[in-house]
Each structure stands twice: as structure tokens, then as C-alpha cells.
């Protein structure tokens, strides 16, 4: 067979940074569009990949022909390919891996993309006959049949009936009067069958915010919407969306957590009907594939999702919204270490559409962009309803007796709220019973054998856990490296959520107490139900971790307490203060919604710490101004760009050796302004049996870092020391320890 004159450039689904050339299979139309999937011979087998280009010249010599073209129409549109190429370059990550990661699992594995289908009930001939008989079925069935006679029934139509129609539908199905059919999902804008909730009349601040967003309709622009929880940001997003939906455009909205998508989807559906889809990692592959298909066909108006939804195909994209834009969970911490917020801003720029970044506590990156005029900052300074902002009080716990981590003053404050039938939320970012366990007889401290970390005592299940590698040591068996003979006499040091919950139960018998952390909230359903219980006031006291701190709307909570502020005040991570200031402002935002004024209590041994005065005295903006000045003086992000090269191996020497070779090379080629720091051991050097080291790159401009990384990835492939380590790149690291 003579090879075709045409050569395909293919990004193969493999962790390789270069693309590969293949001849176009004989008899295939050379007009093949980029974005189609192909199967190509690779190594000893075949792999899937994506066509990036089809050229007639043979400048890059192909040796083999592609095995098969899978698609007639591209699965990636030009915009997605462009975004993926940008990410591949910016994060120096293999393009084929990025592209395969953008596809639903089944499409990645070669299946044809699904049609966007949904189930409807259609009346049969038997059903028509039945509906016509005067002595026909009972009233409800009759009503359902009458409705089905006019048009196919979908879930929304059934929900609009004033009775529960499910049973009638089941019976009619059994009688053969209705049948299920799968039909393509129709366009969205016209989906106004169910009675929809009206939009609020915006207050003046909200009007200004909406006007700022609207001013960018049809072109790129970033609006930073800064307003505390409850200030009405979501209302602004929804009204902006309404106009774009009516114009047939699609909207992508990201939130930091799965639980938040669930809370929002109900709110959005009440406004927009069936136009809303959800995409996150908690869904089945099948559900994800269906939503992806509906997005791709332009049939879904609003896509709500977590981080990975930023890659979804949205041919009619008209607006992006990133809620809680400061949230660290927008940054992926393995594989392609991307920031969904930053990718979203780039996507908006490439598509020439507006993007709204919303937060009560914007990241310092976004604050600076606002100051420099790259983002337009709009403030929502008041709460939307009549709720007032909570009062904050520092509880100096020096020398005080603590019961399960709780001071008497805090217990008293909780008691007062409970007596008034109000809800209390306690925040402690530490799971388990006690973060450290010591043997009272010999002084042994529980440490993980595979990590540089203490073991955490969990009472439930009676075991010592490592929160870093997941190791579990049941207390019924000998614990690792314990030094005295016989039974250890274990004593807890410090408090975790489990211990606080126990102390609360003892102090407030009969109150309904919920612990909300990763140990108690297994699965989406548990989280959803618990949040529902909080809203419906079926719970009195909630003690929880980070999970509780994010944008939820609970109106019955009038007291929020930070159990332990100190662990946050003295961290080595240069972002620790920013995170803590955000957290304090965010948890504060949970208190005192509609009717009752709220209070925030913060337990600390360091009430004089300047962070408190900044956050509580001058608000988050005061904090941000001071923190930005410090970052600038220290040449840290967002003033300097940063990247990290990490390496790990089971032998402590190898990561050091590899990174020393890398650092030497980078220093040789370093453009002026690029600083190469390290290699140094990671703050937790040993983790899950691997020793870890890192290099930090800093430069006044991104371009210098980008150039250095490009030459590093080429050189790394040739360094012999690379075979002994696993290395990774992290551009704009969130966690620089
Ligand atoms: P955020 O997203 O900033 O937390 P929301 O948009 O969720 O704020 O608004 C908080 C609460 O105030 C919601 O219950 C919302 O329905 C209500 N709300 C928002 N805007 C208005 C308004 N203009 N008039 C009356 N209520 C409003
Ligand atoms: Zn461990």
C-alpha cells in the first residue's frame, strides 16, 4: 500500500510531550477536521489520540499510517483545542493527556459520543383508546392520559400536576397505555413549562454589579464581585444569566464543592427550569457522559460544576462565573496541576466573553489584578435582605481550663444560644479525637512509619490513623514502635472534631449535635441530608471542618466559634495568613442571617496577633492591603511568578541528586531575574514511604519561568538521574511547602 500524501499530526493519549505524525489511512478524505479522534499504532499496540492538523507536505516524516479515524465530526471544537494547547504550554503538561482528560471516560476509550437523551412517556394506541372510553380509568390516570394525549410527558410536566403522578404513570405503563421513549433533549430557552420563581428586585449595589457584567456582554472582561456571603452575589449571577440564556448563550458556573452544586441546582432550576446541568466527580460515568453531550450539542443552557467542568464543551458559551474564586480547591493537586479559575479566565479571553469572579474574600492574586485595573472590582457592601454582619470577639484562652478544647466562656455562649433555640456552628479543621497520642507510661508518641507525621487517634473504630498516607493501626493490635512492654497507657494530646463533639454531648445533653467531616460524611447523600437538616433546624450544634466553611446559606445559626485559631497563625506556608483571613471572614459569614444577629467567637492564645486586628478591624480589604504590601516586599506571588519542580523516591538521595542536576542546569541557562532556590527537602520530607524534595523558581515575570520550564522538560528527559525518581511540575503552586 502506498502511503498517503497526507500526514496527520496527532496528540496521542499518552504522557508524552511531543505530538506524532501518521499518514492518513488510505481511502480517507483528507478534509478531515482537527479535533477528530483517531486510533494509531503506538509501541506494540494502538492508542487513541486527537488529530491536530492534516498537512499535505511531508516535512515531518511519518512512518506509519493511522489505523482508523473514529469521528466524522470533531469531538473537540477549535476553542477547546486552543484552550488545551494553552494549558499544555502554560503548565508544561502533555497535550494528549489534557485532551483525553477533557473527554468522558467512554469517549476517551473510543465510544461514539452520546446523543443527549432523556426519557419521556408517550401515549400508545391502547392508551388513546383507553382515554376515550367513558368508563375509563380513575381520575388521576385519566388526567395523566389526557396530558399525554397532547404531548409527550417529561418529569417537568408530571411535576406540574397538583398530585403525585408517579403511581398513575406506573399503572398506565403496566396497562400498556404509556411507553417510555428516549428522545433528544431539546433546546433550553423555551423550557418554561413549570411555574418559575420570580427574580428579586435588585438593590442599588446589585444593580451596579449587574451593569458592570452587562457592560462586557459580547466581549472579554473580568468582573471581580466582592461581597460577603448573603450580599446577593448569586442573585446578580442569575440575572446576568437570564439575559444571556434568552439570547441563546450558554453559561458555565464553577463552585468549589460538590455539596454546593447540589444546593445551587435547586435554586437555579426554580428560576430557569430544566436548562441546568451539573458536572462533577461524584456523578456516574454515564451521567457525566450525558451532561457532556448535552453541553456539546449546545442544548444545555447552564452548566454548574466543580473544578473539572471548566473543560466542558460549550459551543455557545456567553458567560463564565467562578464563585468563591479564592478557594484552594480550584487548584488540582496532581497530574495536570491547573487552577480552574485561571483556566476559566483564559477561556473567557480566548472566547471573548465576560467572566465574573465572586467572593467575600478574593485571592490576593485577584485583589492585585483589581488594583491594577485588569479586573473591574464591584462591591456588594450590605447584605441583601435585612441581616446585619456578625460581631466578632476574641476569646483569650491563656491559662484557662479547656474542656474538650472549649473554654467556659465559649460553653456559656453556646448555652445561651441553645436556650433561645438558635443554632451554633463550631469550626475546627482537624478530624479525629486527638491529633497526637502519647503513652503515659513511657512517653512514646504515635508516629507514622511511612510519613514524617504523627498518628491521629480516632475513637470511633479505636484506631490510630495517618492522615497523610491513610495507614490505620487498630488499637487492638500492637501500635508501631511502641517502647514500653505490655499495654500502652494512651493519652490524647490536643483536640479533633470527634473530641469536641464528645465534650459538647456531655455539656449539652439532649441537644442534637452533628459532626461534619470526612469521617462522618461519607458520600454526597449524607452531606446533602445533613445540610438539609441544618436548614430545617433539625440540628442544634454542628462541629465541623473546612466542609462547613464554604458558601452555604444557613439562616438559623447565630453563633460561630473557631475552636483553635493558633494552629493557623504560625505556619511556614506564605499563604497561611491569607487562607486564615479568608476562613475567619467566611465562617463569620455563616452567622446571623435573616432575623437574628450573629456573633463570632475565636479562641486563641495570641489575641494580640496583628492578623486579627487586620481582619476584624479593617475588614478583609484592610487585611488584603497589608498582606499585599508584605508579599511585594518579599518578592512573592502575586508580585512574582512562581513554579516548583518536585521529585520523590523511596531512597532519600535520589530526589536530591536529580534536582541538583536540574538546578545546576537551570542556573546555567537562567535568564536574568530568574531565581532558582533549592533543592530542599519538602516540609514533610517523607510521605507514604517516599522522600520528597523540591526546587522553587521565582521571577518577576511569568515569561522567564515559562522559558525555564520549557527548557527543563526537554533536558529532564535526558538526565540519567530521572529514572530513579518521579518528578512533577507545579506552576503557580498553592502549596509551596
Ligand atoms: P450570596 O450569593 O452573596 O451569598 P445570595 O444571592 O444567595 O447571596 O442572596 C442571599 C439571600 O438574599 C438569598 O436568600 C436571596 O434570595 C436573597 N436576596 C438576594 N438578592 C435580593 C434582593 N435584591 N432582594 C431581596 N432578597 C434578595
Ligand atoms: Zn503515613
Chain-wise SSE layout:
Layout: E1 7-12, E2 20-23, E3 37-42, E4 45-55, E5 68-69, H1 78-90, H2 95-101, H3 105-108, E6 117-123, H4 125-132, H5 139-150, H6 155-159, H7 166-174, E7 178-184, H8 204-214, E8 221-227, H9 233-246, E9 250-254, H10 258-272, E10 276-279, H11 285-296, E11 302-305, E12 317-323, H12 340-351, E13 354-359, H13 364-371, E14 376-380, E15 391-396, H14 408-419, E16 423-427, E17 436-439, E18 456-458, E19 463-465, E20 472-474, E21 490-493, H15 497-507, E22 513-516, H16 524-535, E23 541-544, E24 557-562, H17 566-569, H18 576-588, E25 599-604, H19 610-633, E26 641-649, H20 653-669, E27 675-687, E28 690-699, H21 702-716, E29 726-731
Parallel strand pairs: 8-13, 8-14, 9-11, 9-12, 10-11, 12-13, 15-25, 16-23, 16-24, 22-23, 24-25
Antiparallel strand pairs: 1-2, 1-4, 3-4, 3-5, 6-7, 17-21, 18-19, 19-20, 26-28, 26-29, 27-28
Give an overview of the whole structure.
With 737 residues, this protein is α/β, with parallel strands linked by helices. The protein folds into five domains: 6-108, GIY-YIG endonuclease; 117-184, no CATH class; 189-363, P-loop containing nucleotide triphosphate hydrolases (Rossmann fold); 391-432 and 496-633, P-loop containing nucleotide triphosphate hydrolases (Rossmann fold), CATH 3.40.50.300; 641-731, Ribosomal protein S10 (Alpha-Beta Plaits), CATH 3.30.70.600. Helix content is 32%, strand content 23%. It has 21 helices and 29 strands. It has a seven-stranded parallel sheet with strand order 10-11-9-12-13-8-14, sandwiched between helices. Strands 15-25-24-16-23-22 form a six-stranded parallel sheet, with helices on both faces. Strand 22 (513-516), helix 16 (524-535) and strand 23 form a beta-alpha-beta unit. Helix 8 packs across helix 9, helix 18 (576-588) packs across helix 19 (610-633) and helix 20 (653-669) packs across helix 21. The longest helix has 24 residues, at 610-633. It starts with 6 loop residues before the first strand and ends in a 6-residue tail after the last strand. Residues 187-192 have low confidence and may be disordered.
Amino acid at each position: 500500500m502506498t502511503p498517503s500524501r497526507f500526514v496527520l499530526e496527532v496528540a496521542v493519549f499518552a504522557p508524552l510531550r511531543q505530538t506524532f505524525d501518521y499518514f492518513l489511512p488510505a481511502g480517507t478524505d483528507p478534509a478531515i477536521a482537527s479535533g477528530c479522534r483517531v486510533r494509531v499504532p503506538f509501541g506494540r499496540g494502538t492508542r487513541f489520540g486527537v488529530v491536530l492538523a492534516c498537512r499535505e507536505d511531508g516535512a515531518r516524516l511519518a512512518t506509519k499510517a493511522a489505523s482508523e479515524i473514529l469521528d466524522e465530526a470533531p469531538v473537540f471544537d477549535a476553542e477547546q483545542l486552543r484552550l488545551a494547547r494553552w494549558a499544555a504550554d502554560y503548565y508544561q503538561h502533555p497535550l494528549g493527556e489534557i485532551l483525553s482528560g477533557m473527554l468522558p471516560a467512554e469517549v476517551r476509550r473510543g465510544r461514539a459520543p452520546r446523543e443527549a437523551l432523556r426519557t419521556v412517556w408517550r401515549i400508545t394506541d391502547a392508551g388513546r383508546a383507553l382515554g376515550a372510553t367513558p368508563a375509563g380509568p380513575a381520575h388521576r390516570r385519566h388526567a395523566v392520559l389526557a396530558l399525554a394525549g397532547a404531548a409527550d410527558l417529561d418529569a417537568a410536566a408530571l411535576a406540574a400536576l397538583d398530585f403525585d403522578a408517579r403511581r398513575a404513570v406506573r399503572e398506565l405503563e403496566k396497562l400498556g397505555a404509556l411507553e417510555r421513549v428516549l428522545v433528544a433533549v431539546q433546546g433550553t430557552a423555551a423550557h418554561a413549562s413549570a411555574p418559575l420563581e420570580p427574580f428579586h428586585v435588585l438593590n442599588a449595589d446589585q444593580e451596579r454589579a449587574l451593569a458592570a457584567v452587562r457592560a462586557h456582554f459580547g466581549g472579554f472582561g473580568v468582573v471581580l464581585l466582592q461581597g460577603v456571603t448573603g450580599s446577593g452575589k448569586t442573585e446578580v449571577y442569575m440575572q446576568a444569566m437570564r439575559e444571556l440564556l434568552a439570547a441563546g448563550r450558554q453559561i458555565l458556573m464553577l463552585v468549589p464543592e460538590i455539596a454546593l452544586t447540589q444546593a445551587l441546582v435547586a435554586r437555579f432550576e426554580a428560576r430557569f427550569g430544566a436548562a441546568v446541568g451539573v458536572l462533577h466527580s461524584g456523578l456516574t460515568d454515564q451521567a457525566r457522559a450525558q451532561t457532556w453531550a448535552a453541553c456539546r450539542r449546545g442544548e444545555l443552557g447552564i452548566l454548574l460544576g466543580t473544578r473539572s467542568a471548566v473543560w466542558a464543551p460549550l459551543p455557545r458559551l456567553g458567560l463564565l462565573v467562578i464563585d468563591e474564586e479564592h478557594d484552594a480547591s480550584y487548584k488540582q493537586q496532581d497530574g495536570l496541576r491547573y487552577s480552574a479559575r485561571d483556566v476559566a479566565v483564559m477561556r473567557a479571553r480566548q472566547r471573548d466573553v465576560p467572566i465574573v469572579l465572586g467572593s467575600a474574600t478574593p485571592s490576593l492574586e485577584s485583589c492585585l489584578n483589581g488594583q491594577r485595573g485588569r479586573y473591574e472590582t464591584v462591591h456588594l457592601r450590605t447584605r441583601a435582605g435585612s441581616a446585619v454582619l456578625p460581631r466578632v470577639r476574641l476569646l483569650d484562652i491563656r491559662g484557662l481550663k479547656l474542656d474538650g478544647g472549649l473554654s467556659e466562656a465559649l460553653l456559656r455562649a453556646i448555652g445561651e444560644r441553645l436556650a433561645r433555640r438558635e443554632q451554633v456552628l463550631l469550626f475546627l479543621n482537624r478530624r479525629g479525637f486527638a491529633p497526637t497520642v502519647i503513652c503515659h507510661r513511657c512517653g512514646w508518641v504515635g508516629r507514622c512509619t511511612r510519613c514524617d507525621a504523627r498518628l491521629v487517634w480516632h475513637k470511633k473504630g479505636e484506631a490510630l490513623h495517618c492522615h497523610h498516607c491513610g495507614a490505620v493501626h487498630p488499637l487492638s493490635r500492637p501500635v508501631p514502635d511502641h517502647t514500653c512492654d505490655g499495654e500502652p497507657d494512651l493519652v490524647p494530646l490536643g483536640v479533633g472534631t470527634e473530641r469536641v463533639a464528645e465534650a459538647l454531648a456531655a455539656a449539652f445533653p439532649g441537644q442534637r449535635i452533628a459532626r461534619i467531616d470526612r469521617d462522618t460524611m461519607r458520600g454526597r447523600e449524607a452531606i446533602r441530608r445533613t445540610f438539609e437538616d441544618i436548614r430545617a433546624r433539625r440540628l442544634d450544634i454542628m462541629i465541623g471542618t473546612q466542609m462547613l466553611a464554604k458558601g452555604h446559606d444557613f439562616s438559623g445559626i447565630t453563633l460561630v466559634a473557631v475552636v483553635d485559631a493558633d494552629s493557623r497563625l504560625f505556619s511556614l506556608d506564605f499563604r497561611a495568613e491569607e487562607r486564615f483571613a479568608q476562613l475567619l471572614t467566611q465562617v463569620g459569614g455563616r452567622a446571623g442571617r435573616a432575623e437574628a444577629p450573629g456573633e463570632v467567637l475565636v479562641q486563641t492564645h495570641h489575641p494580640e496577633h496583628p492578623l486579627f486586628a487586620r481582619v476584624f478591624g479593617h475588614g478583609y480589604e484592610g487585611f488584603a492591603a497589608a498582606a499585599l504590601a508584605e508579599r511585594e516586599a518579599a518578592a512573592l506571588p502575586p508580585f512574582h511568578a512562581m513554579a516548583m519542580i518536585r521529585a520523590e523516591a523511596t531512597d532519600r538521595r535520589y530526589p536530591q541528586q536529580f534536582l541538583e542536576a536540574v538546578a545546576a542546569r537551570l542556573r546555567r541557562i537562567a535568564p536574568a531575574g530568574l531565581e532558582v532556590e533549592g533543592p530542599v527537602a519538602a516540609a514533610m520530607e517523607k510521605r507514604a514511604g517516599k522522600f520528597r524534595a523540591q526546587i522553587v523558581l521565582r521571577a518577576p515575570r511569568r515569561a522567564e519561568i515559562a522559558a525555564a520550564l520549557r527548557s527543563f522538560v526537554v533536558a529532564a528527559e535526558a538526565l540519567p538521574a530521572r529514572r530513579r525518581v518521579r518528578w512533577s511540575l507545579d506552576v503557580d503552586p498553592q502549596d509551596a511547602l
